[in-house]
Amino acid sequence: MWRFLYQRIGKVLQTNRLFLNSAISILSIMIWCFSTAFAQSNLSLTGQIYDNNDGSIIQNAAIQIIELGIKTRSDNFGFFYFENITTGSYSIKITAPGYNDTTLNYLDIKPDIVKRVIIKMSGKVYNLGKIVVHGKKPDLTSDRVTIISRNEIRQSHIRDVSEILETIEGVSIQKTGPSGESQVRIRGCDPGQVLVLIDGQKINASGSGVADLSGIPIDIIESIELHKGGAGAEFGADALAGAINIITRPTRLLEKISLGTQKGWGGWNTRSFELNLSNPIYFKNFTNRWFYLSNQTDGDFDFTYHLSDSLLTGTRLNNKSQSDNFFASGIYQPSQKVTFNYSGRYFESGRGLPDRAARQNETAAMTDRRKLLTSAFNYNVSDNHRLDIEIGYTQYNQQFLDIDTSQIVKYDSEFINDIYSITHHHSFIFLNGNLSRYSISYRDEKLNQTDRHRPFLSMGKTSRNNLSVYFSINQKADLSKIKLFDLMNLDAAVRYDISRTKKDSTSYADTVKTNSTKQLSPKFGLAFSKGQNILFILRTSYGKSFRLPTLNALFWTGNVLSSGNPGLKPEKSEHSEAGIEIKLDFEDISVSAGFTYFHLFIKDRVVWAPNPQGVWTPKNMAFSLTTGHEDFIHLSLLKDKIKISYQNTISTSINKIPGHNSYGKRLSFSPHYITTISARINSSPLFFSYSVRMVDFVYTNESNSRHPYGAYRLDDLRLGFNFDLSKSWKVSVLTEIDNIFDTSYELMANFPMPGRQWNIFIGINYNIGKENL
Asked: At 74, is the pLDDT very low, low, confident or very high (cuts 50, 70, 90)?
């Protein structure tokens, strides 16, 4: 076995000499980091400082050992340390601008033992009459990257990742039914043009290029980063219309030892069971989380469906599904400079594949197995210098089956998709707060497609490797001497990608079996802010991104009906946006409002069309222009106990193929507007929320002549409470009713969605109350 692995690794590295050199450099740096980190045996007191409210690190805080009179400051990652302190009991005082002073007493320093502390500071509030001024400076960025924190996820009480994303303007979800795949759209673009990652590891399937959000448990998520309008400079290939990074692993050592379980019931005989463990394995400086989720549903629902001028009614069949989800993650921090993270997930499901409403199928099914492993090594070289190494592996094993002799189309197809990645990051600060980053990453994707029903049509083995180099610079400037603005943020980034795709074997219809490309993705941004409790922010950015052709489009095995095209070029986009945001923050009331105009031009879009012989093949023949704006208003009362939100996206995606008979027509499946209005009350122990989502009609063909989906409105309600039985025991009950008024609607052509749906969840949590520090 070891000999086989050695030969395999040697073959890969021999064919990728640049990757070999990078790997050797990274290994050398890791060895140096280990030796340096664990050589710090003379440290006597060390720690890290956090914001008690949102968990963010606090830089440049002053730490003083009162009895000795010695001082130091926290670095750019919140760490501090004192060396060679004599044995004794000491008190330390921590001060930071915008925070209340904090004092820790009776810290015992013993010989050859490093004392480690975690310090959480609360923000200071300055009362000036009826105005409250908070001491923290605004987080100023040139593009409005949306970060959904764990706290926001808890307060929303939403149990589905796709529903969480739909609370953000510009995002919509595409589904075929209650148990089907969940595919995300950003600003009207196709799901395959959105890159989705879990802990930085790509989960878009290599064959189709589309990521499926179903099966991702909400309780494993620490935060979600949403980048809209193209993110090629930040994430590389396939972030043509944006990127979503779901972060699961713990980010700080603040988790308490706890055990939680939840049982759920819902319509169509839906049942779920969840088990959540925090720190069941306990030792110092180590935080770990274990999670299990089981879901199953019969899924069949009654529907009403408009097909041209006809009205179809009946029961939607073959929507059953069953899944098991296992997840584990952890963080280990052996010293103030070194951190190890890991996360692992195994998901297995089986579900039916219903056909279109007018032609139901009761026998088609699929099995879906997913594995994801990630690990990260973080080393704080100095106060202004940080090194990160990330390694990831993802596997999708999917089988689609229907060999019922009564069906016209029969198939038995298996896809095995493996994705390996390694990334090396460096970040450093210089010249009065100038933050610079550079990274080098390598990703290897392998896809093996087997047609068991017709083996001669199997696509076989295909591989794609991508090497990218990234550099960014971010400079903040204090403009307080200028009356017009207080702060300025300037950022620039560029990424260079080299990709090569190869098919191991050829069929009788193949003419080429390789595809290579080199792409440059730049991005520039500028932002200004003015004020504190009444804050104005101006933003603008410009960039370019690209998407590689999917492996199916390149190498789908040729036959009399369809064939791939190995000569496809990447799809490319040019994107820009400009916006204004206003924030008013008073004692018990805060208001934020914003308006963003966006522009996205995509060329060389891949379109499947028949050739002169009538065989459908993909070609780079489409151009499109998407323009529009996003606007929002958020009102928070009584320190977030009451929150009212209005979010609206208006986008127009137009066909721009010169001379095409659909030039100037709207793209299919892209609604003109999506508007969401919601209200939420979080007053412990009770919780209540109500949301209304209104979506415009869409066209289903390029000529805009076919009967479109109709516009629709969905009303959703959530009601629950949390009750503390004791200091350690908590009980929660949540009831949710989706589509209260039983509205008939579609998210994909000919696939009607269910009407009213209800769920109830009862949870019990036991918290020992001891933090793992």
From this structure: confident
Closest CA to 712 of 737, 750, 741: 741
Q: How big is the CA angle at 65 (ends 59 and 70), to the nearest 5 degrees?
A: 85
pLDDT tens-digit readout, 688-727 = 999 999 999 888 877 887 767 789 999 999 999 988 888 8
- Asked if 679 and 689 touch (Cβ cutoff 8 Å), the reply is yes
The single-letter code of the amino acid at 278 is S
CA distances to 522, 545, 564, 667 from 609, rounded to whole Å, are 32, 25, 11, 16
Confidence check: pLDDT of 472 > 50: yes
The one-character DSSP state at 92 is: E
Using CB atoms within 10 Å of the CB of residue 194, give its burial: 0 to 12 exposed, 13 to 18 middle, 19+ buried: buried
Query: Dihedral (C-alpha) 660, 662, 665, 671: value to the nearest 10 degrees?
Result: -120
Instruction: Name, in order, each residue with C-beta under 8 angstroms of 768's C-beta and a sequence gap of 6 or more.
Output: 256, 257, 258, 728
3-class SS at 404? coil
CB 213, CB 161: distance < 8 Å:
yes
20-53 pLDDT, tens digit per residue, is: 444 444 444 444 444 444 444 445 788 888 777 6
User: Confidence class of residue 78 from pLDDT cuts 50, 70 and 90?
Assistant: confident
CA distance 253 to 57: 12
Q: pLDDT tens across 378-402, in order?
A: 998 887 888 999 999 999 999 999 8
58 phi and psi angles, rounded to 5 deg = -115, 115
Closest by CA to 755, choosing from 773, 771, 740, is: 740
In three-state form (DSSP H/G/I as H, E/B as E, the rest C), the secondary structure along 282-335 is: CCCCEEEEEEEEEEEECCCEEEEEEECCEEEEEEECCCCEEEEEEEEEEEECCC
In this predicted structure, what is the pLDDT of residue 43? 54
119-150 pLDDT, tens digit each: 888 876 544 343 333 344 445 666 668 888 88
For residue 685, say if its preceding peptide bond is cis, omega within 30 degrees of 0. Answer: yes
236 by Cβ neighbours in 10 Å (0-12 / 13-18 / 19+) ranks as buried
Mode of pairing for the β-strands spanning 242-247 and 194-198: parallel
| DSSP symbol at 218 | G
Cα 470 to Cα 234: distance, rounded to the nearest angstrom? 8
* Contact (CB, 8 A) for 393 and 373: yes
- The dihedral sign for the CA sequence 47, 50, 52, 54: negative
Find, among 183, 171, 226, the residue nearest to 630 by Cα. 171
Closest by CA position to 748, among listed 714, 705, 712, 698: 698
Positive/negative CA dihedral, 11, 16, 21, 26: negative
Report how far residue 698's alpha carbon sits from residue 747's, in angstroms, rounded to the nearest whole number.
Answer: 10
> What gap in Å lies between CA 618 and CA 615, rounded to an integer?
10
Q: Which residues contact 262 (CB under 8 A, 6 or more apart)?
A: 272, 273, 274, 276, 732, 761, 762, 763, 764
Higher-confidence position of 558 and 359: 359
Q: Judge contact between 473 and 518, C-beta under 8 A.
A: no
Q: How far apart are CA 218 and CA 314, in angstroms?
A: 33
Tell me the sheet residues that pair with 332: 286, 340
CB 592 within 8 A of CB 533: no
Q: Which residue has the tokens 């059953």?
A: 320
Residues with Cβ < 8 Å from 612, sequence gap 6 or more?
A: none
* Secondary structure of residue 420 in the 3-state scheme: strand
Give the pLDDT of residue 181: 83
Closest CA relative to residue 756, chosen from 743, 745, 770: 743
pLDDT for residue 514: 81
Name the phi and psi angles at 366, rounded to 5.
-140, 150
CA atoms within 13 A on the CB side of 160: 19
Q: How far is CA 132 from the centre of its chain?
A: 34
pTM of the model: 0.81
